[in-house]
Amino acid sequence: ATLKDDLIGTWKILESWLMYSGSNEIAKLCDKSKGLWPRGNWPGYMELLCQPILEIKYFMNGIKTERKGHGDPKDIAPTIETLNEAQRYSRCIVGAVALYTIYGDHCKLKDVIEKIEEEISPKVDEKLEGYLRKDGGNLQNQLNKCEGIDIPTLLVGKALLQDKIKEWVREDRAKGKDEGGAWRAGGQLLWRMKQRCTNNRPNDIGKVEQVMGEAKENNKGSTATFLGIKSDDKSTEGALMSEIMEDDDKFSSSKLGEMLNTAVKEAMTGGKNINVDSLVQSIKKGAEKTVAEACTQKRSGNGVKDDLCRRVECVARHWEKIKEPTGTAEKTEPCERLSCIVQYLKTRDTAAATGAVPGTGGSTTPTNNFWEKENGDVAKLWQELSQAMIDNGKNNQSGCDGMTDASPSEQTACKFLHAGFKELYNPTTSSASTSSTTGDVLKNNPSFRQTMGCFLLHAYAKHMKDKAVCDIEEGIKQAFESWQDLSTKAAGACNDKDKKCIPCKWEEDNFKGCEIEKKGATGEKENVENKLKNIIDKDGNDPKMKEMAQKINEVTKLCDQVKCVTARWMSQNKAGGTGTRTWDEVWGQVQEQISPLRTALGSATKTNKGNVESYCQGLPQGVDKEACLLIAAGLKNLYDIQESDAVEASFKRTMRCVLLNAIADKLQHDNFPCKDEKKVSTGIDYAFKTKNKDIKDASDGCNDDNCFQCERYEDNFKNCKVNNTVEVKDKVEEVLKNEGKEEMTKINDQAIKDI
């Protein structure tokens, strides 16, 4: 179905709902006996006008209530519909446009809406949520989901719907109450309105037309927040509905209607179908011809908003995206929002060429200022977020507290990201709650800031995931998931009726595939992930990124190192991409690491000390140097591992570290000859504790932040278990006694016997 077909089809559903007399449930919510309405003659009109308004609210949320029969005091069981995103979007637009097109000239509409918002709406929301949760339905996520409906969206909807709805209104009102007009539209409700609003002169056509015209003007200031629709321009309450109720000639005078009407007409194919690409191009053309100036100023005299052009343009794109198969709409949304920002910047580039945008000129354009690597808007936002992560990410974060079984790396990754989100949604740093074109584009446009912040935190998480020695996926997921309920998590910035926020989901694949239009290259695209790499990492020279990577890879206990490194190694595909690895392969790798370690230890003899002797020069007098040389050689060997695959290298280092500790155990065992006289333990500790970092820093493979430091394990390592039940120490001993026995004999003959 096309965009127009979707809306017309949705309107036909609402039309059928408004044709019948309504349910007892809705009638009771509007009942005059509750003291909601003024005394005297007014209740019969205002309580009836209240009913179709609530009907529209129910319709937008997918709940249909109905009497068992005409005049029956009981209702049938409500119908609860599961609405996908496209259906919710269409119902939001149709409901808002229909409300003000059908009832906008009622003299008491504004009063009734105010009463609904103040007293009735909370009860309605409670009932609707109860229905959506009924029998484990878990549909409460579709309650009041109209926050994204703004002026451009409603204007596109109005341009496509108004003729159809107005035709129905004319026909229904022509029937009147005696000829079958709908009870809550052109029949009984219209008759009561004529009576009450003309002081009982319903047949005075001139008077009726006068009061209806006055009512339409008066109702333009009303709002529709009870429908779940919120304007992102909070400086003028009721702006959304005022735009719907403008007549066509008023649209022309504001130049907006002309743009929309031309765009829709030019995009029509075959009489009714609308080509979205054509619509977007027509809107662009219309904007360039008729509203370029209004769209690049802060606010023109007639109230057209600065970023209206790009937002109208995005409506058509978004509409097509949400009609894609289930599950794809959410995935494309962040990238779609970024595309809208790019389009917005393009309109400002055009305006900058005429000097309409302050602070631009020559080669400096809003787009260049936005993406500039060092001091651009995106770079400044990243500096703000990353600084908050450095300052606060080392402390406990509430959203990460529940990760009781997580590795230290997962916990650290979660805490850094959580601190970044906290800064992103911080009301004191998020600046304005409404949009502006002056100054920093991201600071002055909250939705832009949150969209770009989401991309930056994705880029950061992806970078850290690649740099991390351990698997930190669960830590990343936890941080993102902990910031989904923004109404409670960021109440100061997102829970006020004047403020709305965009949640950021961890969608690595969709982030990776996001492309935007390349500046100055028509038809060419560029990958957003690649565009952000240099901003967040500065070609590998960002000190904050280095510090965070170092902290994430800072796992001091050997048991934790073994667990996280083996988990990451096992999760990778085997060579050729044929499945993941098994625990048998892990223990097979332990055996394979004995041979290269044995070669290194063989060099640490009195006759061939290699280049490790310097690390044992400072031993106290009387301590035999050989044990120190042996451990130093082992440490140098594992730190010198160089692999193109960082995960493979880390796994091998960790396995050799476990083996080196096992060899140290043998040197310190009670049956090792003369161990006390030679002070073997002192030599081992000197290499492990005093010179370890020096050996690591001077190595060929560990001069960055991708390596653990191989520590001497404590006594509690004997309780270190992997795969739930396997004790690492016992398993390594088993490997050394069986598959690795021959290599261990060589180590003893070449190195240990000399101590």
Task: Offer a concise description of the structure.
By secondary structure, the chain is mostly helical.
Overview of the molecule:
Helix 3 (43-60) crosses helix 5 and helix 6 crosses helix 13 (308-322). It contains 33 helices and 8 strands. A hairpin with a 7-residue loop joins strand 5 (515-517) and strand 6. The model is unreliable at 231-237, 248-256, 284-309, 324-332 and 431-438 (pLDDT under 50). It is elongated. The protein has 755 residues and is mainly alpha-helical.
Give the topology.
Layout: H1 3-19, H2 24-29, H3 43-60, E1 63-67, E2 75-80, H4 85-103, H5 109-133, H6 151-175, H7 188-197, H8 205-219, H9 239-245, H10 248-254, H11 256-267, E3 268-269, E4 273-274, H12 276-296, H13 308-322, H14 328-353, H15 366-371, H16 377-392, H17 408-424, H18 446-467, H19 473-481, H20 486-489, H21 491-494, H22 508-512, E5 515-517, E6 525-527, H23 528-537, H24 543-552, H25 558-571, H26 583-592, H27 594-602, H28 626-639, H29 646-668, H30 680-690, H31 692-697, E7 721-722, E8 726-727, H32 728-737, H33 741-750
Antiparallel strand pairs: 1-2, 3-4, 5-6, 7-8
Domain Schizont-infected cell agglutination extracellular beta: 335-516, 557-722
InterPro entries: SICA_extracell_a, SICA_extracell_b
Domain Schizont-infected cell agglutination extracellular alpha: 2-168
Tag the structure with descriptive keywords.
33 helices, SICAvar, type I, SICA_extracell_b, 8 strands, 57% helix, SICA_extracell_a, mainly alpha, two-stranded antiparallel sheet, 755 residues
